[in-house]
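Batch job 17 of 40 flagged for manual review because the log was empty.
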Amino acid sequence: EPEKFPYVAAGGMFVVCVGQVVFGVLGFLCFKYDIGPIITFNLGKGVLGVLAQVAVSICIYLTYPLMFYIPIDILSGPAMERFRNLSEFTVEFWLRVILVIVTFLFAV
């Protein structure tokens, strides 16, 4: 049911955003101004700290495609018009590659 996808995407993004805000607020309330550059570093090197880091990494990895849908949806139309001589698959593939590289550069 493709017509329901915008609602699923919005709901998924809402859950992720609320989770990140709650995680950040609780981290600040717990560690105050002694908080590390990445909040999971404050949990130490024990099992709990490692599990938290793994859980956050998995969540980011699994929600990236959902969050990536919106920029691809917005930018694919103008990209298709600009590169009419290429196939739709080729244009969307290279658009995705470029956006992943840009995202990576922002993260670094």
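Reviewer: the log was empty due to a logging misconfiguration, but the result itself is present. The mean pLDDT is 85. Unflagging and moving on to job 18.
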